[in-house]
Amino acid sequence: MSTKPSRPAGKSSGCSGKSWIQPGSSGFTSSAATSERKGDAMEETRTLAAFCAGLSYESLPAPVVEKAKLCVLDFLANVYGSFELDAFSALVPLFRDRRGVEIATAIGCGFKTGLRDAAFLNGTAAEAIEAQDGLRFGGNHPGVAVIPAALAVAEETAAGGRAFLEAVVAGYEAANRIAASVHPRHTLSGFLPTGTCGTFGAACAAARLMGLNATGTLGALGNAGYLAPFSMAEQLMGGHPIKIVQGGQAAACGILAADLARAGIQGSPDVLEGSALKGGFLQITTGGQAAPERLTDRLGEHFTLLDVYLKPYTSCRHTHGAAQAVLALVKEEDVRPETIEGIDVYTYGIGALAVGKGVSREDTFVSAQFSIPYVVACCVMDREMGPAQLRRARLRDPALLDFCGKVSVRYDEELNKLYPDKTATRVEIRLKGGGTRVRQVDTPRGDPRDPMTPEDVAEKLKRFARGRNPEQLEETVRLVLRLEEVSNIRSLTALL
Q1: Quick one: pLDDT at residue 12?
Q2: pTM (two decimals)
């Protein structure tokens, strides 16, 4: 069946029900769909807290360390890229004018401020550009909450690079495992896991750098469950700019959760699984359709950080297959906008549902980030999808908006069968003179199966930080890729 386009530019067709969304494989050994208790033996929160508190750099496999450093470098690229956005730039004076004790660096802003304000600004910047890392099995973006919390506390405590990396890995494990335990029902219930689950990850990262033991970290997790933002999915789906603060709010709340635990104020020790009488975070935010065993499945054996993808484009991950396919076609075959009759994009269910709509002149940059027609139009006309494509002037360009109307997004049953193992998209460009150019992308670039290299991420940093001091950027790349040798994280933050 077909649905009419919800926007005047860009067309979408296919099923419109939630039956499109298949829970599918999770990346975890077990895949139970409910959170029924087995007596009172479930202590996943305690197990996760003990793991995060006891994590040591020496216990980390080399690939985990390398991926953690890559995620940090990618985080910095995304922060710098968001200065292209009017919405984020408007926040900077607010925090500059009201800054308190100068403890932690507000990246790219030229000033220091309090711990939580710095984490909020840095996390918001990393989220705003929509080029942040993510976990396919959890629907969350861990880096925008975990890294700003860890960076702020590490700067305050003058932590070394190894301690900082320990905190980052611990935070990713907590955020990712909690997100995977509630996915996909959490989002279908109206929550965004980046904000909700990210708060737990930020709390674990902050607790690790504050030197909290397992009991203290458990208290921080309990506090995180009380402080985590509501993070309504409707704010994103409606294209509202407030969506950009979910990472920053999670980072700031995570630091507060750890601070309170350090002061002796500690929340529920079974905040995730819940007590025998009351439901915990998992049950409350999924209607009882969670998989709590994913919290500890192969904990310490498999690091979920290795499952995290990175993004080359400044748009929702569900648009990346289309972007990659279109860019390949227009560059390899030199396809020009004026030669195109129309473009048909075929994709899986959640992709068509979440990002199949077009955009209008009144829409925000958030709507554009979540629009295949807009992303495809940029890839055809600009031959890139980066920070510049989210500037206000570009969003209002009549020619670009008109071209969006040539793009149709269609649900494809065969591609949907591949989801979530593959987020496959097929693009067919119909030319005015006859003929069609076709390209299918099964696994978008940045996925662990087709990873971005350190060189790719370094190039992304330099591209997103256009106008910044080139020598400082080179030194930033050098330090991040050798974080284990850094004795004081302030040598890095001094460059930011």
Answers
A1: 53
A2: 0.93
